[in-house]
Amino acid sequence: MTLKKYREKRNFKETPEPKAKIVRGKRKPLEFVIQKHAASHLHYDFRLEAEGVLKSWAIPKGPSLDPEIKRLAMMVEDHPIEYRHFEGIIPRGYGAGTVMIWDKGTYSVRGLPRKESEEFILEGLKKGKIHFTLEGEKLRGEFALVRIARGAGNQWLFFKIDDEEASKKDITKKDRSVVSGKSLMQIAKETR
Ligand code: MN
Known about the structure:
Radius of gyration: 16 Å
Strand content: 35-45%
Order of helices and strands: HEEEEEEHEEEH
Number of strands: 9
Structural class: mainly beta
Shape: globular
Bound molecules: manganese (II) ion
Helix content: 10-25%
Mean pLDDT: 94
Strand order of the largest sheet: 1-2-3-4-9-8-7-6
Distance between the termini: 34 Å
Low-confidence stretches: none
Largest sheet: 8 strands, antiparallel, barrel
């Protein structure tokens, strides 16, 4: 676990994104965030807290509540815990574009407390299969991430497990920030 890649990709004189800092919190429970990111290609960044960082995946099409729909998720570099609060503009360089906090909340594995949930996640990351329950504002219930290819691609599939929160409705139609209530356009306009 390291933020070396995160640091290397960014010039902190240019970007307002948080500095690379590992925070092994006792904060509980574990947190997650999904950031809608209008970079060169629009995508959703799904991030789960573990080991003092945010494990991160870029999901081009965004999450679905339909268990039959599996979304491609590319695992990317770990991000600092502080990143979960980041909404605004990356003016230039890596990831240049607008970032919105599309959803946030807490997560656990099988309803277990922080420490046990984290152990399951770390073990699952090695095996390439993690199951977790999200308590967000848009996403709730059980979800899974399963690795389909290693290496440069580091491709996973992100999908809903069938439960009472599963639905055919397109959750990405809810397209405002859960923090500011702003749309991507408003963030782009008002964060200058
Ligand atoms: Mn991104």
